[in-house]
Amino acid sequence: MITPLYIIPARGGSKGIPGKNIKPLCGRPLIAYTIEVAKECATDDNHIILSTDSEEIAQVGRALDLKVDYMRPAELATDKSGSREVILDAMDWAEKNGIKYDCVVLLQPTSPMRTAEDIKECLNLYSDNIDMVVSVTEAVTNPYYNCFETDVESGFLHISKGDGKLSRRQDAPPAWEYNGAVYVINPKSIRAHALGEFEKRVPFAMPKERSIDIDTPTDWIVAEALIEQTNHRNHPL
């Protein structure tokens, strides 16, 4: 039985959608969706770290019955701060405070459709001889079918991979993209390498309808529609 450390990164600044992390989404702060699933999965609140530089976000976390003792340093709260540095700082704080864990679960607040079951499925795929389990969804473009590159010399387009002769998407090898919902990370791996340098990455596939990653106002509108549709389906009149 592994013991995860859940890290929820939520800095105060957001250019695309101001105040995004605590803006109400279908009547609840965006961050509430992630805190709720973390609480469903964690053994106790000590193993959930809300990584924020914003006292306002911290207060919203506390109002959602989450203990918020850690505050992210200001130098790690700019739009140029890397995920690895943010994770390592939270890991160091946990260890200094006697919190023991076997893996790190990064849960970004911008994925409100992810469920506790998604997290548990990712944890089931994790072992300490891999670098990371990461949630993915089928890529919109497939490098064997409809993803093209520009030839440096001629300027013409050519297929990214393969010979370009496939006439049906379903004949192409599946292509995946990170959906931003769940990252189960080996602590030894992230202390040694950047996330993009991991060689042993295990995918966990999620459907498109639960893979919304809110980055723009349009994403917000789509997320609201999906949540309202889900709520209506689960609680019909």
Can you give me a brief rundown of this structure?
The chain is an alpha/beta fold. The chain has helices at 30-41, 55-63, 83-96, 116-125, 187-192, 217-234; strands spanning 4-9, 24-25, 28-29, 48-51, 103-106, 132-138, 148-150, 157-159, 176-185, 201-205.
How many DSSP-defined strands?
10
Low-confidence stretches: none
User: So what's the overall shape?
Assistant: globular
CATH homologous superfamily of the largest domain - what is it?
Answer: Spore Coat Polysaccharide Biosynthesis Protein SpsA, Chain A
State the main characteristics.
alpha/beta, Spore Coat Polysaccharide Biosynthesis Protein SpsA, Chain A, two-stranded antiparallel sheet, 237 residues, 2 domains, globular, 10 strands
Structure description:
It is a single chain. With about 240 residues, the protein is of the alpha/beta class. It has two domains: about 5-135 and about 175-235, Spore Coat Polysaccharide Biosynthesis Protein SpsA, Chain A, CATH 3.90.550.10; about 140-175, no CATH class. It has six helices and ten strands, in the order βββαβααβαββββαβα. Strand 2 (about 25) and strand 3 form a beta hairpin. The protein is globular, with a radius of gyration of 19 Å. The termini are far apart. The model has no long low-confidence stretch (mean pLDDT about 95).
Task: Detail the topology: elements first, then pairings.
Blueprint: E1 4-9, E2 24-25, E3 28-29, H1 30-41, E4 48-51, H2 55-63, H3 83-96, E5 103-106, H4 116-125, E6 132-138, E7 148-150, E8 157-159, E9 176-185, H5 187-192, E10 201-205, H6 217-234
Parallel strand pairs: 1-4, 1-5, 6-10
Antiparallel strand pairs: 2-3, 5-9, 6-9, 7-8
